[in-house]
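Hello forum,

I keep getting stuck at the same step: I have a sequence, I want structure tokens, and every attempt I make locally crashes halfway through. Rather than fight my setup again tonight, could one of you with a working pipeline run this one for me? It's a single chain of 399 residues.
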Amino acid sequence: MMRAYKFLMRPTSGQQGALAEMLRDHCSLYNGALQERREAYRHASKTTVRYGQQSAQLKDIRAFDAERQGRWSFSSQQATLRRLDKAFAAFFRRVKAGGKPGYPRFRSLKRFDTVDFPKDGDGCRWDSTPHDPVTRVRLQGVGHVKVHRHRPVTGKVKTISVKREGRRWYVILTAEQAQPEPLPQTGSVVGIDMGIAHFLADSSGGFVSNPRHGAKAAARLQAAQQALSGCKRGSNRRRKAVEVVARLHRKIRRQRLDHAHKTALDLVRAHDFIAYEDLKIRNMSKTPAPQPDPEQPGSYLPNGSAAKAGLNRSIADAGWGVFLAILAAKAEGAGRQVMAVDPRNTSRQCPECGHTARENRPTQKKFHCVSCGHHAHADTVGALNVLRAGLARRDANPA
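Reply #2:
Ran it on my machine without issues. Output:
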């Protein structure tokens, strides 16, 4: 199995300049390759330029511009060209599917933050020993850069990426590992119901509170964005204001990831089988369609867009999709089973008698069965029904 590691780099001032130049030159290569594809299609009878053709030109490009392009790893430049090729492949796939095309765009230096090295030892080298407190990564054209390795890397390092986030630099490794030993069996199964009031409720009656990191930082983020809007474009003051806004967003993202990792780890350690609702998060957070007023042309009827916008912010702030992806990855490494079930009527069906009706849930929190009188917290009832559906599916399709 493959596992990714992300470590903070501690480059010197000279190495920071070299890393910035590396991003600049790879960005220039990306934009030049994109320009070649655009001009070939427009002016050469709609000729399509492929990755293989552009990769074959790299040798001449490096010889012509040895001071800039010739100093960097050949394989990392090939990875940049593959990145553009993937962007075009995704563009044509969306066109074929009838979706929004999203033609590949030119990248500014502000939006080009990553350089990939496809193979450890080819233009880069991860230099780490188990008991050495100092870890370094060697990058062609940059040198040996110190890395804050906060945990050991197990397995064989396959790829290395360098990423800039604000003023910080990170190295991202992917390592191939043997399948780890599964955790000891606990004999416990659980169903979870994702929500807004609580981050999740489980079938045993427990709740995980929703930290609402985005809502807590909303006032500071709003003030930072207002300060940014009053700055003149291209000024140093605006550049600093942009860094403040980006730093707040990065902090919120890290807080969400930390909460998701800890919550998923607790579930994986405590339960052998975890069932969850197969939520269509993208559909749930769509903006309501406008409703024209038939009596007043040019006017629209109320469609609840303001309330829906608040709900969409809460869904995004909870980070359900990130949490479920992390849960699946941790469960795979721990030998646990995770299963998605159909979420329809999970909070309206009585877990005691099976009666399903909208009236069973009179409020957001309360569940009261109109048939047998069973009452409980609505999220707990949803988690119980999710667990029941998950066990039925597991038994019907044994691994």
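The first helix runs from residue 13 to 43. If your local run keeps crashing, start a new thread with the error log.
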